[in-house]
Amino acid sequence: MRHRRRWAGAILVPAGALVLAMVEPAGSASAAHVRTRIEPGTAAATASVLGITPGVSGLTLSATIGESSAAFQHTETQAKSGTLDLGSLGLVLATSQFCGRPELSSDEQPHPITADSETGPRHATRGTKGLGHESVAVDTDPESAVATTTTIDQQLPGLVWVRGRSRASVRYVDGVAQVATSTVTEDVTLLGGKVRFEGMHWTAKRTSGTSTTRSTDFSFGRVTIGGVPMSAPDSAPETTISLINKVLAPLGLSAVQPVRSTNQHSGSVAIGPFTLRFSGSALERSILKPTVNNVIAVETLLKKIGRPGSNCADVRQLIDNLDDNIGSLGNIVLEIAAGAGSLDLQFGGVAAAAQNAPNFLNPFGQGGVPPPIGGGPATSAGTGSRLPSASPPGTTAVSGGEPTGATPAVAAAAQRCVSTSPSRAHSCWHGLATVASTGALAVGVALLVADVAVTRRRRTNASPANPRSAASE
């Protein structure tokens, strides 16, 4: 018993001291990470009411109506609102020549209004005659940006009528998170009232910080087909699309429901547009095919008569200019109707992205892990870099169904427990190792003291002054 007690004490004392010496500094380091502050990272949101995309033989032109976007990167914030953006179509018009001048120069084209915390105004509004209303605002304390675009009635006679509103916003919740939200609400009428959507709605939201959330939502609103309202069109979207396509098919039209997507790398979520595609019906193709051939023959004849040049006082040069511009545009329309191309009308569509600021304390760590309070270098503003896109390439698409990802609530305080374990295990320092090592050290010391006391007593009892004890031993 005496030897066991001695060996136990001899083991517990150095073991407890060693554990206390090694674990306590690690506990202090972990305690420094318990309180973390989420510094401004990046957030971006985009939303649009209507996109028009004609395409023939691999050539695609595009224009957007009612677009809103907002973003911030560290301390720089931006917002943009545009009732009409001619996009690639505007580029073609600006570079195509008619009698020595652009068909529609860049200066003559409509431009969105913008706000930038670094280089431009921070608030702006504008009403665009016949198109709608634009509004933008940005701030840096804390970082936030918002853009809102409202469109007046837009229509292609006999085909489509649309009116809507888009809104994109980003904000930094001081020390807690960055939040990006985009929404679109609009009314759409097709084929003079044969199909109606009232209150179509898109929403995308992304939060990154003390907790990460993402959500997407789409609703057809109130749907009327042939004057008869549909009941619960959102409960079975495939059925709704099928019924709509039965009405549209005779005119060569088809509807495609919005597609949800997410990108784990960039931290973005999106819901694509409700697309109305026109590629010509069988009847239209059979009727217009000869017409297209005749147009091509006329163009060939005009090419022979015309002469290249920019002096439209010369009749032959005027013919060549008219042929290059009006004839080509007419060809696109006829070829789409004849089935050689397509015209997409894209209603709605939203995207949102948010990411934490990178952690510069650990060069081998994961980006987006916030540094502890009072530690690490300050994050640079990055004013020379481009603000992030809310819908980057490489997304994973999911048609219909529930929004991707969980949606926990954002924490109310900028505190969380972060493990310092290399494996990033989900555990935190609570002082338990300190208590255990101190206890082991105390028990070891007690055993050694007890062993010394017992040894002294036995030696005293075994001395010549105590013959009885000596005899008994």
Uncertain ranges: 26-35, 363-430, 468-473
The rounded Rg comes to 36 Å
Assembly type of the chains comes to single chain
DSSP helical segment count: 7
Coarse morphology: elongated
Strand content: 25-35%
List how many beta strands DSSP finds.
24
Largest sheet: 12 strands, antiparallel
Mean pLDDT: 74
Distance between the termini: 17 Å
Helix content: 25-40%
Structural classification: alpha+beta
Gist of the model:
This protein is α+β, with helices and mostly antiparallel strands and 473 residues long.
Describe the structure.
It is a single chain. With about 475 residues, this protein is an alpha+beta fold. The protein is about 30% helix and about 35% strand. Strands 1, 2, 3, 4, 7, 18, 19, 20, 21, 22, 23 and 24 form a twelve-stranded antiparallel β-sheet that branches. Strands 8, 9, 10, 11, 12, 13, 14, 15, 16 and 17 form a ten-stranded antiparallel β-sheet that branches. Strands 5-6 form a two-stranded antiparallel ribbon. α1 packs antiparallel against α6 (about 430-460) and α4 packs antiparallel against α5. The longest helix has about 35 residues, at about 1-35. It is elongated and about 135 Å long.
Secondary-structure map:
Layout: H1 2-34, E1 42-56, E2 59-60, E3 63-73, E4 76-85, H2 87-95, E5 97-98, E6 101-102, E7 113-116, E8 123-128, E9 132-140, E10 143-151, E11 154-156, E12 160-173, E13 177-190, E14 195-209, E15 213-219, E16 222-225, E17 228-229, H3 237-248, E18 253-256, E19 259-263, E20 268-271, E21 274-278, H4 282-305, H5 315-337, E22 341-347, E23 350-355, E24 396-399, H6 432-461, H7 467-472
Helix pairs in contact: 1-6, 4-5
